[in-house]
Design goal:
By secondary structure, the protein is an alpha/beta fold. The chain has 14 helices and 18 strands.
């Protein structure tokens, strides 16, 4: 069996599972973000009294942090009350950051576990050798009551990534290139196993970027075999023991896609689809109004450091807004300590609260009709960041920083 199948087999108490089988799996951790008050309402409609395990459920305020409207403030109030009623051990309020970032930082994610969360980008946790998947409010209410969820064992697809990326090419460029090839519907309800020499040496941040965007191919979950960097990270933070590390040696995949990124150039996803990808050389001179570095895909220390390296001692273009949204308060504090935020501030950047920021089109930098944004976030659908008449271009933090300097979509290799 593949590591993913071994995780599912253990979770349902079986010796093995096979593709297509429906199982009832025990969930190791469940997380609810502030987009889903319906989770609480469904919990009560199902006559839930207490969550199944107060140490294995967390609420994270990241999409509306801090609350931009009275309605959002009311949602936060109701969720805080639920947390208090159930005496939950873990609650990440508006000072914490994006759920996918704060949970690993808090030591809640480890190899071999199953995490379900009310966010499609929960595939991020495949970076740690965990099985992460997004669920809706009703399924989450069921989990909070029982600690279990039915799952269909997915078909497993290999995406093998080999080679060493050129200096100015980031993990975001790698996954955009793959998306351009496999397309947005290329892995619907499949699991993606990322392998290859590039993945083997990749740091925690880069792994999280790639697994994060697996869902943009329709994937149910993503997986990477933990390397030493992951194991060291988890060991330094884990709040509970984990016993089993699963391997996928010699597994026969349903399909394999092989990529060599040794000569890859920076990539850009054009409006209005994540798989409408072109290399920066063929992008043309596209004027931008706003540049965004941040969120769960592009707001980690390495991302902000890459931008600071390009922008240090320079000023952004006069008619451009550069918005920086750290993925968590831990990232924010580390970037302050290293001087990155000072360098970005002197270049003309605007900073927002750690969290999702304008990525969902709710607050902290949404776009007007006709405006153009180049962003390190993960989706560029119409209306994703405000007006349905705005245009979003997905790129790496380095490309975003370079574009902020010139006012046009720009190759970071220029700097």
């Amino acid at each position: 069996m593949h590591a993913i199948q071994k995780i599912l087999a253990k979770a349902c108490g079986q010796s093995s599972v096979k593709t297509g089988e429906i199982i009832m799996a025990k969930i190791d951790f469940a997380e609810v973000n502030d987009l889903y008050p319906q989770t609480i309402y469904s919990f009560r409609e199902m006559l839930g009294q207490r969550v199944w395990d107060k140490d294995r459920v967390a609420f994270v305020f990241d999409h509306y942090a801090p609350a931009p409207t009275i309605k959002a403030a009311q949602i936060h109030k109701e969720m805080r009350e639920f947390v208090k009623e159930n005496q939950l051990t873990y609650h990440f309020d508006t000072n914490a950051g994006v759920c996918h970032q704060v949970m690993p930082e808090a030591g809640l994610i480890y190899p071999g576990m199953i995490i379900a969360a009310t966010d499609s980008h929960t595939t991020t946790h495949g970076a740690f050798g965990a099985l992460g998947t997004g669920v809706g409010a009703t399924d989450m209410a069921t989990i909070m009551i029982s600690g279990e969820l039915w799952l269909r064992v997915p078909e497993i697809v290999e995406i093998q990534i080999n080679g060493k990326a050129p200096q100015h090419v980031m993990p975001k460029d790698v996954i955009l290139s793959i998306l351009g090839s496999i397309k947005a519907d290329g892995a619907v309800y499949k699991a993606i196993s990322f392998t290859g020499s590039y993945v083997d040496q990749l740091d925690v941040s880069g792994r999280m970027v790639i697994c994060n965007m697996a869902v943009e191919m329709g994937a149910k979950t993503a997986y990477m075999q933990p390397n030493d960097k992951v194991l060291e990270y988890v060991a330094s933070r884990a709040v509970r023991q984990y016993e089993i590390q699963y391997t996928d040696d010699d597994y026969s995949y349903s399909e394999s896609h092989i990529f060599d990124i040794s000569n890859l150039s920076p990539q850009v996803a054009f409006p209005h689809s994540v798989d409408n990808v072109r290399s920066i050389e063929t992008a043309g001179k596209i004027k931008v109004d706003q540049c965004l570095i941040g969120t769960c895909t592009g707001g980690r220390i390495q991302d902000i450091a890459a931008a600071a390296e390009i922008l240090k001692g320079k000023k952004i273009a006069a008619e451009v807004r550069l918005l920086v949204v750290p993925a968590s308060s831990e990232v924010l504090k580390e970037c302050v300590r290293k001087g990155y935020l000072q360098e970005l501030a002197e270049a003309g950047a605007t900073f927002a609260t750690p969290g999702c920021g304008p990525c969902l089109g709710a607050h902290e930098g949404i776009l007007a009709p006709g405006e153009v944004c180049v962003t390190a976030s993960n989706r560029n659908f119409p209306g994703r960041m405000g007006s349905t008449e705005a245009c979003l271009y997905l790129a790496s933090p380095a490309t975003v920083a370079a574009s902020a300097l010139t006012g046009y979509l720009t190759d970071p290799g220029t700097f």
